[in-house]
Structure formats: structure tokens, C-alpha cells
């Protein structure tokens, strides 16, 4: 079974590759056949690869898709923060 890790800094500080590297190293037992990390700004993703079929020997995780996921994660977290702020304002008005 392969493994994935991720970091999202809410304070918008850049993700350090060494921290992401430590996280994927902890998952070494999940995927001894490959490792890769990606960082862009406050988001970092990493994975460990385990080949389970002959076809998987040629596979490489499509990082372009992960960039899209990273943007979606950022938007989702932003919307959660907005909802929390909105609910706190409504709560104060009601009570």
C-alpha cells in the first residue's frame, strides 16, 4: 500500500522540504519503491510508492493533478475559516 502526506500552513509561511521529507521517511514501510515531494508556497505534498502490479512499474504520480488538489484544499480551508467567522458574528448578534 502506498502512502501520502501533506502540510498546509495556515499562516501562509512556506513549507520546508526537510519537514516534508521527514514525514515521507516515516512512511517508508508504506512504499519502498519510490518517493517524491512537492512544495509550493504554504502547501506541501509527498508520497511513497509501492508497486503492486506489473503495470505499476511504469507509473508515476501525476503531480499536475496534485497541484489542482492543493489549490482546492486551500480554497476549502479558506471557506471553512469564512464560515467560522460568519457563524461567530451571527452567534454574537443572536445572543
What does this structure look like?
This protein has 95 residues and is α+β, with helices and mostly antiparallel strands. It has one domain (3-94). The protein has 2 helices and 3 strands. The chain has helices spanning 17-26, 63-94, and strands spanning 3-8, 34-40, 43-49. It has a 3-stranded antiparallel β-sheet, with helices on both faces. The chain starts with a strand and ends with a helix. The relative contact order is 0.17.
Please write out the topology.
Elements: E1 3-8, H1 17-26, E2 34-40, E3 43-49, H2 63-94
Antiparallel strand pairs: 1-3, 2-3
Task: List the keywords.
95 residues, alpha+beta, three-stranded antiparallel β-sheet, 2 helices, 3 strands, 44% helix
- The radius of gyration is 18 Å
Strand percentage lies at: 15-25%
Runs in which pLDDT lies below 50 for 5 or more consecutive residues are none
Q: What is the succession of H and E elements?
A: EHEEH
Spatial order of the strands forming the largest sheet? 1-3-2
Total number of helices: 2
The gross shape turns out to be elongated
Q: How many β strands by DSSP?
A: 3
Mean pLDDT, nearest integer?
82
The overall number of domains is 1
Supply the helix-strand structural class: alpha+beta
Amino acid at each position: 500500500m502506498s502512502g501520502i502526506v501533506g502540510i498546509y500552513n495556515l499562516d501562509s509561511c512556506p513549507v520546508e522540504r526537510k519537514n516534508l521529507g521527514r514525514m515521507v521517511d516515516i512512511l517508508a514501510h508504506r512504499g519502498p519503491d519510490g518517493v517524491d515531494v512537492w512544495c509550493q508556497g504554504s502547501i506541501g505534498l509527498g508520497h511513497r510508492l509501492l508497486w503492486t502490479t506489473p503495470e505499476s512499474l511504469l507509473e508515476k504520480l501525476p503531480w499536475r493533478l496534485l497541484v489542482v488538489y492543493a489549490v482546492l484544499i486551500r480554497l476549502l480551508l479558506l471557506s471553512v475559516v469564512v464560515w467560522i467567522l460568519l457563524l461567530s458574528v451571527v452567534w454574537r448578534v443572536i445572543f
